[in-house]
Amino acid sequence: MPTNRENEFVHLIQQHSGIIYKIINLYVDDEEDKRDLHQEILLQAWKSFARFKGNSTFATWLYKVSLNTVLTFNKKAKKHNVLSTGNNLMEDNTTVKKEQAEVLYYLVKQLNEVDRMIMTLHLEGYKNPEIADIMGLQVNHMNVKLHRLKKQIIEQLKNEQYGLA
After folding, report:
1. Which fold has domain 1-84?
2. Whole-prediction pTM value?
């Protein structure tokens, strides 16, 4: 019979399952690796759930666990190019918005692992102090990194003449 803590964990994971899928899709291409990584993230989250004290939101904590698990997985799988393609950060019914989202997603995926996660968290609506906490950075450093990343992506958009800037 499941305990209250187990039920709480399952409920929170179900509520925030999109976080896991977004991170996996940003870092892994192979479908089998995605399934394995999903299970590994759930295992790591369950193992460390007892240490979750609520100092941050569950979503922030889950991002951190998921990101750390994915980065560890990628270090072990260096022999593979783990960029995925064809997924949208944002879904919309209009063709133009879909194309814009695909271009943005493509550019974000070209960033290194740390910058990619920073930009993903920003696009998800996390505030800079929350991103800094997840990434283990100072808030001022986070502000500077994010500002530079935005400028970099805008420049890429202009240089590639995607018509979005």
Report:
1. Rna Polymerase Sigma Factor; Chain: A (1.10.1740)
2. 0.57
Options 1.20.120.550, 3.40.50.620, 1.10.10.10, 3.40.50.2300; CATH of 90-165: 1.10.10.10
Separation of alpha carbons 165 and 158, rounded Å: 6
CA 59 remoteness from chain centre: 11
Which residues are CB-neighbours of 29 under 8 A, at least 6 positions away? 80, 81, 82, 83, 84, 85
**Tell me: the pLDDT tens digits for 75-127?**
776 544 433 333 444 443 456 566 667 777 788 888 888 898 888 888 888 88
| Structure confidence by residue, pLDDT tens digits, 7-37 | 999 999 999 999 999 888 888 888 888 899 9
CA pair distance 95, 58, nearest whole angstrom: 34
